[in-house]
Amino acid sequence: MSEEVLLARVKALEEEVERLKAQLKVERDGAKTSASLQTESLKHQEGEENRSKQKKRGAERPFDFSVHPRRHVALRLAYLGWQYQGFAVQENTDNTVEARLFEALLKTKLIQDRQTSSYHRCGRTDKGVSAFSQVISIDLRSTQYGGGLGVTVPAGVEVKGKASAEELPYVKILNRVLPQDIRILQWAPVESGFSARFDCQSRTYRYYFPRGDLDVDLMAEAAKQYEGTHDFRNICKMDVGNGVLQFQRTILSASIQPAQLNPTGPNDPHQLYVFQVKGLAFLYHQVRCMMALLLLIGQKLEAPEIIEQLLDVEKNPRKPQYSMAMDYPLVLYDCHFEGVNWRNETEEENHVLSSLHQHWVQNAVKTQVLLGMIQGLQKTTTEMTSLQCWLMEGSRQRKYQPLLDRPRCESLESRIQHFVKRGRLEQEEGENGEETTVFRGKRSKHSHLTTTNQIQEQNHGAETHD
Description:
Pfam families: PseudoU_synth_1 (PF01416)
Largest sheet: 10 strands, mixed
GO cellular component, one term: nucleus
GO molecular function, one term: pseudouridine synthase activity
Shape: elongated
Organism: Cyprinus carpio carpio
Distance between the termini: 116 Å
Keywords: Isomerase, tRNA processing
Number of strands: 12
Helix content: 25-40%
Radius of gyration: 35 Å
């Protein structure tokens, strides 16, 4: 083959390669364009779906509280406090009843925030304490554009056709999101100035205990000494650091009676009794200290007169050191208000009853299992283990030391001076030249006590705290 023919052949092959390259490029570009279009289509579709979901959730438009009426209401709730660190919100834990309650209120959009909700609580139960009738007052979102008791209608909102709407089912709404051991029982519309704390007429506590070998008649007799207005500084935990400087409290009634309508027998050591005390307000750990003294009297370790002696702060200005009664048998049983018309939601009442029955069945069966074991062991022994000792905190002394012979706690005056030095309290000169003490300490971010007058109202029993 000649050189000219070879060159022509090479040139033809090069042209063919270039043609194939061009064809391949066109095909690749077409594939990229198709894939790009498909990707863009998928992205657009996903974006539309996301926008649709967000629109359904209301994520693009925050809930507008300003167009809804607000209604000042009272809520009555029950809770089993055994697993909680108390009712009131605390800075060092969120395991409180109040924390769960506000989570539910915020989740259901019944309030915008705590600070603007005009919130007050009737009682401040401590760790492990339960309640059957705790009451709070609060502003909740409402449907009543036409106004009504406790209703505030926003200005400039169109109300035509909205005035006849039924009120929101507050009990049902909240119980659907609250834990099973916290239940709203009733609600009531109240005046805008109503306060669950300051308008409460009385609080009633119950403390349950087994008879054991206690002298319940002697305890009932001793309990009557609590009635009346007394200085309870020796029968409480003095909360001077939080501004509680006045310890006079009024007890309207105090009694001990069988907890069951049909007692199993007059001498049954497993029969449950209840110490019921009704007062205007209570001090920190007051009821548990009252019960501790009654348990000592029931064991005949102390005479009934010990109560009268400890209430005499002139003769006994300093509290003897003694343990309180345990927390779990204590229940805030009732908070009484005048003129409050509670509203029931029948369906929710049935749900609450069903839930309580479930709790009761579980615990009643466990109780009977334990009782069966006890009775089985008692068939082989005549010695009866004392039951009442298990309701006192701390260990029991081998040799009992009478209360008035024990070491004493600091006096009220000493505690005041301690917190004055720390800057929590300040002493000022009163109108008559007398020295007065006022609370200046750091308050919790959740506290609503912002004035000296409010502190004084607290000291005079505006809020129960046990």
